[in-house]
Design brief:
By secondary structure, the chain is mainly alpha-helical. The chain contains 6 helices and 2 strands. A two-stranded antiparallel ribbon has the order 1-2. It binds fe (ii) ion (FE2) (2 copies).
């Protein structure tokens, strides 16, 4: 458990240091949850899904992509910004921003680009992309319907070697 939480914390630290990830704290996602809190919750939920389903994934890429999946960096509630098609366009905006600020691999790009499937028509091409797509919907539902802040998401992590899940 600590292993995964340490990985998530390390990635957050890295993203805050190297780019504009902290800016996600300025914008609300659903209800009173910020985009930052939502993204961390999606990373944790993605890890939880991986553990529950005993999936073998690239955990580094999964966490990195999950944290950056909504890296659009604007207030999507502000209609004056002309983001009327936010639902459809923000995966591309997030990918463009993340690609500008960080080094992304194929899996991270797939996660960000396709996380809104089926609203956007093209499905994820990687296992990690499917996991984040699912985790995002679970977290969005919790935020919107149950107004939850996600403090309760604690992936039950068994002891893992560095090679497990990679
Ligand atoms: Fe999104
Ligand atoms: Fe999201």
């Amino acid at each position: 458990m600590d292993h995964i939480h340490e990985m998530i914390d390390q990635k957050i630290e890295e993203l805050e240091r190297e780019g504009n990830f902290k800016k996600e704290k300025l914008f609300l996602q659903h209800g009173t949850t910020t985009v930052y809190e939502h993204s961390v919750a999606v990373a944790k939920m993605s890890c939880l899904i991986v553990m529950q389903l005993h999936l073998t994934v690239d955990l580094d890429a999964l966490i990195y992509g999950a944290l950056l999946h909504d890296y659009f960096l604007y207030d999507w509630h502000d209609k004056s910004r002309g983001e009327r098609w936010h639902g459809l366009t923000h995966p591309i905006t997030s990918l463009r921003n993340a690609d500008r600020d960080y080094h992304l691999g194929t899996i991270e790009k797939d996660i960000i680009r396709h996380h809104m499937f089926p609203l956007t028509l093209t499905p994820p091409r990687t296992k990690e992309g499917w996991v984040v797509c699912m985790a995002d919907k679970i977290c969005a539902t919790r935020e919107t319907v149950f107004r939850t802040r996600h403090e309760d998401i604690q992936p039950p992590m068994p002891p893992m070697g560095p090679e497990v899940g990679v």
